[in-house]
Design brief:
This protein is of the alpha+beta class. The protein has one domain: Roll (Nuclear Transport Factor 2, Chain: A). Helix content is 27%, strand content 39%. It has a 6-stranded mixed beta sheet with strand order 2-1-6-5-4-3. The chain is globular and about 45 Å long. The N and C termini lie far apart (45 Å).
Length: 139
């Protein structure tokens, strides 16, 4: 897979994620069946099926959530990107009722690709910044 093709695949992934409001079950064409998703602080990866509910929960809390891919670095069948997610806190999230506050969360996401589909995703997002913004954590 070429560099530009992999970059385009990542941009298309985030566009689809936003279009389907996190319902990755509608995105089977981009995941290998054994794909795993890892979050910083979680010891084990989530399967695509296990990742479905957490993914959709973000769009319940932030229904206007949109991702913007800022940078993509490709090395063979691996790529790392910096992505910004922006939206408005309009629904419950992590025990916090809607605040109507705008949010902006940066993340670094590493992808591995096999057979032109994602086989692994590792996400390191600024969750502390998000929780501070919505008032779940006090300064």
């Amino acid at each position: 897979m070429g560099k530009e093709e992999l970059k385009e695949m990542i941009v298309n992934y985030y566009q689809s994620l936003d279009l389907y409001k996190g319902d990755i079950s509608k995105m089977n064409d981009v995941y290998n069946e054994d794909m795993l998703v890892y979050f910083v602080g979680t010891p084990a990866g989530f399967t695509a099926k296990d990742f479905l509910e957490p993914s959709k929960s973000y769009y319940v809390a932030f229904p206007d959530l949109k991702h913007r891919v800022e940078d993509v670095i490709v090395d063979g069948n691996s790529a790392t990107c910096r992505v910004v997610a922006e939206g408005t806190h309009l629904g419950p999230f992590q025990g916090v009722e809607a605040t109507n506050k705008p949010i902006s969360v940066e993340a670094i996401v590493a992808f591995k690709v096999r057979d032109k589909k994602f086989s692994e995703q590792r996400i390191s997002a600024d969750m502390l910044g998000l929780m501070l913004t919505i008032g779940a954590v006090k300064k």
